[in-house]
Amino acid sequence: MATTTKAAAPAKKSGFQGVKAAWIILVICCLAGYGVWYFIMGNPDNFVGGDRSGHPANLLGTVYKGGFVVGLILTLLFTVICLGIERFFAIRTASGKINLAKFTADVKNAIKAQDFAKAKDLCNKMQGTVGNVVLSSISMYETVEKDDTLKKAAKIAKIQQAHEEATQLEMPTLQMNMAMIATIVSLGTLTALFGTVLGMIGSFQALSAGGGADSMALSAGISEALVNTASGILTSWVATVVYNFFSNKIDKLTYALDEIGFTISATYDSNHNEA
């Protein structure tokens, strides 16, 4: 008796799935960034005579002299750090509870041996993105195995389709907030350039005024330019490291999924000779 092929139900997700409303993180980091700039770096104790408009007494006071752009750069830096922590826990959850290389090898061996009970057990233990996708593919394998209405090529296509659909359902969790981190990579440098230009404008204004009395204004402008350059480059550096680190993690998960998906389809192909 013919049976109807149904798509495997998506596995229930568990654990930390990431922060969808990343703008909340940005707002909190903005408040923290300007709070650190004004209240900590701008503390009167960091300046000679306790006057913010005077000469800095230490490094914190010097950074404060970078102007309001420092608060913006700190906002970007704190956002990258927070998103890095958020991505760490989200991707760790997606990676599952078993070593990825070991899981890939074990589940491939189980599938080739057609021990689907063991493969399913491995997926249930693994959990995460890889476990969910492989479990969906195996479930479809067993479903089309019982379907007498489809030819071999159609059954393989069904297995591949189930694998691809499950992967697409899981990918948003992996890619979430990566675009914001990538944007900050560029914004850090551009914001540094903006602050540098503002500092140089202040320096040239002091030079155009002339006279020794404007030497403090000249040094303040140069300090503002250099502080913003350094802090902006630091922010872009951190953002680049965070983005590349997690992109590499996502690529490894994607490659593992592709490898196992190919194994499942190839196993069905090799074990069935009918057209």
Number of H- or I-type helical stretches: 9
**End-to-end CA span:** 19 Å
Largest sheet: none
Low-confidence stretches: 1-10
The count of DSSP E runs of length 2 or more, i.e. the number of strands, is 0
What structural class do you assign from the helix and strand content? mainly alpha
Q: How large a portion of the residues is in β-strands, by DSSP E?
A: under 5%
Helix percentage? over 70%
The pLDDT mean sits at: 86
Give the overall shape: rod-shaped
Q: Taking Cα atoms only, what radius of gyration do you get, to the nearest Å?
A: 28 Å
Please trace the helix and strand order, writing H or E for each element: HHHHHHHHH
Key phrases:
rod-shaped; 9 helices; 275 residues; 0% strand; mainly alpha; 76% helix
General description of the model:
This protein is mainly α and 275 residues long. It is built from 9 helices and no strands. The model is unreliable at 1-10 (pLDDT under 50).
Summarize the structure.
By secondary structure, the protein is mostly helical. It has helices spanning 22-41, 59-64, 68-95, 100-112, 116-126, 128-145, 152-175, 178-209, 215-271.
Question: How does the SSE layout of this entry go?
Answer:
Layout: H1 22-41, H2 59-64, H3 68-95, H4 100-112, H5 116-126, H6 128-145, H7 152-175, H8 178-209, H9 215-271
